[in-house]
Amino acid sequence: MQIEISVIIYMLAVFGFVAWNIKKGSFVFDPSKLIPILIFIAVLSVAILASMGIGLGIATTTIMKIGAAGILFSGTLPMVAAGIGLLRFGDEYGVNIFYARNHIGGIVDCVSSLVMIFVGLLIVRLDLAAVGFFFFMLLPFTSNALANSYYYTYQGRANK
């Protein structure tokens, strides 16, 4: 029970941080309405499974794993899109556009690693949470290394 409460507190902290940082009008769904709806759907699903004769613990674990898979999938899509955007688009908007794309990719990757930590705690898989923490700690260094390599490569091209 203590693990579930700590996961809920962590989830609310991440949602609060994201909601605080996103500008007005950016949310597709209002978080104050979406979170209670998702909680209601989860409780209703557990109640339906429990009424079908499945144990309450197994039903809760099943719904948590299904929700965790959905959350992990929704965190993976922006990460793949940011990686494609970083590699696909050229310098047609100026030579410094790479830095903007690199910054966006770094932010998306950091949020995706926070999603991995949250899902690892939600389904009590510490290895997944550890991988997310590892990514969260090393992603700023990789973004910096990409920016430095682009800068020095561009300097070498400009000098020729």
Question: Could you provide a short overview of the structure?
Answer:
The protein has 160 residues and is mostly helical. Helices cover 84% and strands 0% of the residues.
Give structural notes.
- It is a single chain.
- This protein has 160 residues and is mainly alpha-helical.
- The protein has one domain.
- It contains five helices and no strands.
- Helix 2 packs across helix 3 and helix 3 runs antiparallel to helix 4.
- The longest helix is centred in the last third of the chain and has 34 residues.
- It starts with a helix and ends with a helix.
- The model has no long low-confidence stretch (mean pLDDT 76).
Comma- or semicolon-separated keywords:
0% strand; 160 residues; mainly alpha; single chain; 5 helices
First-residue to last-residue Cα separation: 64 Å
Shape summary: elongated
Which class do the helix and strand fractions yield? Answer: mainly alpha
Let me know the largest β-sheet. Answer: none
Task: Give the integer mean of the pLDDT values.
Answer: 76
The number of strands is 0
The DSSP helix count reads 5
Percent of residues in beta strands?
Answer: under 5%
Kindly state the percentage of residues in helix: over 70%
| Count of discrete domains | 1
Which residues form runs of ≥5 with pLDDT under 50? Answer: none
* Pattern of helices and strands: HHHHH
- CA gyration radius, whole angstroms: 20 Å
